[in-house]
Design goal:
single chain, about 525 residues, alpha+beta, 5-stranded antiparallel β-sheet, about 30% strand
Length: about 525
């Protein structure tokens, strides 16, 4: 058989040969062979575009070896060994939130977001990918079998901090992992079987470059993955649409243009989802983030990212914590849905010095499969609320979800943002994993600790999950339950509570209405 060519000879020759060798496999009844063919073709194309990318070249060699091209694999491995290898920069002591470390089982951690790549733009949208390096911080190997469902999937997000708000401005599809390298980026790595690529051993690292994370045939939709238990179907859909944008982090140019985003700070986030990591109970430290800066020449509409000097990857934390790192006044509450996953609720209250306060909330779903369809903050009956707002992030590339904005209503003593429930529309714009939505309003009442609620989207457990955050202070506690503002707590107020039965505060509402029954006292002067 004719050999694949290595560096110094046109990569197109290898691509042409590979195409001819795999033509028969495209029509094979064996789905595993079809997946293998698609992987090889994607890797050759990526190697042609980035011949100096060590990660791509080495993975191509592994894929060739797995496909039976052992002599060619040896040549590519020799070439990969001649390319620069990054110096280890990660230390387990630097991990901010590795509370799961040391427990039995595999424990995946995003140790580094090592590179970011701009792929181009179309229709005023620019596409990016980021490189991710995972470490196995546990005491058992992590499964990394690309030909089965026993491998991790990797997602990426982009966020912007501007004028006190922390918003998500882009998201990627999920890259399906394959062939673990078992390198020494995290610590001294012991790999008992160097010929095997189906396991990431304890203490070992596995890198995926930004170019590798961009290969469309390796990308699958988020909708096919359960983020809580890490399960997904073996044969996934691939992204549709413009070849420059599809499946990658897509950001509107308007969200990047420096003159329109003065003072903005940007962050990228990478996260891993894996069934064996989840089964071991080690899936609460699978997000990491890193600051990026927009590069622009001042005249055109071409934007790219770079890493600012002196910054590094913040390991083991979701990117919402960048908001708190910028502004220590931000409060973040952890919300765990029993038997499901975790969300974070961030809050920042700003005194406008005119008798009003801005209430800004950001809710990030890290790995809850039940997701959220409602966000509720109690509002006193005598408070005036204005400037109610909501923002989300756009799905793309053929993802099945409806992107309709949530509606907002002030009802039954609370400000409520909601989307359709699962029974009405299974594809409704719920707050699903790896996404952050924003809720805001202005009120003429100062902040105090209140009990807010998230309404889960999928049925099968609690109908609302409570958390403590900041909300407007009532002039009197009694007044907050006087919905019709007539000065009395009476049957009309009780009817208002009953009309929202099965929403948050039904039990609290009835108890409060009955305890304050009668004339509402005058506010304290």
């Amino acid at each position: 058989m004719k050999k694949f060519v290595v560096a110094g000879v046109a990569f197109s020759a290898a691509a042409a040969l590979l195409a001819s060798e795999l033509t028969a496999r495209e029509f094979a009844t064996d789905a595993a062979e079809a997946r293998q063919a698609a992987l090889l073709q994607g890797l050759v194309e990526a190697a042609e575009n980035d011949p100096g990318d060590r990660v791509i070249i080495k993975r191509l060699a592994f894929a060739l070896r797995d496909a039976g091209f052992e002599e060619d694999a040896a040549l590519w491995l020799e070439h990969a060994a001649s390319l620069p290898t990054p110096e280890p920069t990660f230390s387990a002591d630097d991990c901010i939130d590795c509370t799961q470390r040391g427990l039995l089982g595999p424990d995946l951690l995003v140790a580094d977001l090592q590179d970011v790549k701009r792929h181009g733009q179309s229709s005023d949208i620019t596409a990016f990918t980021i490189g991710t390096t995972a470490c196995n911080m546990g005491d058992m190997p992590a499964l990394w079998e690309g030909a089965t469902v026993n491998h991790p999937v990797i997602g990426a997000n982009a966020f912007r901090y501007l004028d006190g708000r922390f918003e998500q401005v882009g998201m990627s599809w999920l890259k399906h992992g394959f062939s673990a390298f078992n390198e020494d980026f995290c610590s001294a790595c012991f790999n008992p079987d160097p010929e095997s690529t189906g396991l990431l051993h304890p203490g070992c690292s596995d890198p995926y470059s930004a170019s590798l994370n961009a290969i469309a045939s390796l990308l699958g939709p988020r909708s096919e993955v359960n983020p809580t238990d890490g399960t997904f179907p073996l044969d996934h859909d691939i992204p549709a649409g413009n070849s420059t944008l599809r499946g990658r982090i897509q950001i509107a140019n308007a969200d990047l243009h420096p003159p329109d985003n003065t003072g903005a700070q940007y962050f990228v986030e990478g996260f891993y989802i894996s069934s064996d990591d989840s089964a071991a109970g080690n899936n609460l430290n699978n997000c990491s983030y890193r600051e990026v800066a927009v590069v622009w020449n001042g005249t055109n509409t071409t934007y790219s990212f770079t890493f600012p000097g002196g910054t590094s990857t913040v390991t083991g934390l979701a990117a919402i914590y960048a908001w708190q790192a910028i502004d220590p006044a931000v409060e973040i509450a952890t919300v765990d849905i029993p038997g499901d996953g975790r969300l974070y609720v961030g809050c920042r209250v700003t005194d406008n010095m005119d008798g009003t306060w801005d209430y800004e909330y950001a809710v990030y779903n890290m790995n809850s499969n039940r997701a959220a369809r409602g966000f509720v903050i109690p509002i006193p009956g005598d408070a005036t609320v204005t400037n109610v707002g909501f923002t989300d992030v756009d799905y793309h590339s053929g993802e099945i979800y409806d992107g309709t904005d949530w509606s907002d209503n002030r009802l039954a003593g609370a400000m409520r943002w909601t989307t359709n429930d699962h029974a009405t529309d299974p594809t409704a714009n719920a707050l699903r994993y790896g996404t952050l939505y924003n809720y805001r309003f202005t009120a003429d009442a100062p902040p105090m600790p209140v009990t807010g609620s998230l309404l889960p989207f999928l049925p099968g457990g609690e109908m609302h999950i409570d958390f403590t955050t900041q909300g407007p202070t009532p002039s009197t506690i009694c007044k907050s339950w006087d919905f019709d503002d007539n000065g009395f707590i009476d049957a009309l107020d009780l009817a208002q509570v009953l009309s929202f039965w099965q929403e948050p505060y039904e039990a609290v509402g009835i108890a409060s209405v009955l305890s304050f029954w009668g004339l509402c006292p005058e506010p304290a002067q």
